[in-house]
């Protein structure tokens, strides 16, 4: 479901706009960690990864467990390759001017 929604976000932003994707280690907590004065022992069952994507007001997220990482990463990388054609190229002129100025 996440990858299909991400595909829709990429297609929506093909002409203008941007999609922001963040990846973060997720330990299964739904409440914030307690302060230093109140220690709480919390051991996550396994390492997970929280992946969020947003475009304007539309936000989607998913949690990927260690067992599904390889499968998800393959599908995710194929999706990125398919939709990374709208990137802008850097100006090489400005870079060459900077190097001439420093010499």
Automatic annotation (TrEMBL):
Cellular localization per UniProt: Cytoplasm
Quaternary structure note: Heterodimer with SRP9; binds RNA as heterodimer. Component of a signal recognition particle (SRP) complex that consists of a 7SL RNA molecule of 300 nucleotides and six protein subunits: SRP72, SRP68, SRP54, SRP19, SRP14 and SRP9.
Gene Ontology cellular component annotations, sorted alphabetically: signal recognition particle, endoplasmic reticulum targeting
Organism classification: Eukaryota, Metazoa, Chordata, Craniata, Vertebrata
Transmembrane segments: none
One Gene Ontology term of the molecular function aspect: endoplasmic reticulum signal peptide binding
UniProt keyword list: Cytoplasm, Ribonucleoprotein, RNA-binding, Signal recognition particle
SUPFAM superfamilies per UniProt: Signal recognition particle alu RNA binding heterodimer, SRP9/14
Listed name of the protein: Signal recognition particle 14 kDa protein
GO biological process per UniProt: SRP-dependent cotranslational protein targeting to membrane
Similarity comment: family membership: Belongs to the SRP14 family.
Entries under InterPro entries matching the protein: Signal_recog_particle_SRP14, Signal_recog_particle_SRP9/14
Function: Component of the signal recognition particle (SRP) complex, a ribonucleoprotein complex that mediates the cotranslational targeting of secretory and membrane proteins to the endoplasmic reticulum (ER). SRP9 together with SRP14 and the Alu portion of the SRP RNA, constitutes the elongation arrest domain of SRP. The complex of SRP9 and SRP14 is required for SRP RNA binding.
Main location per the UniProt record: cytoplasm
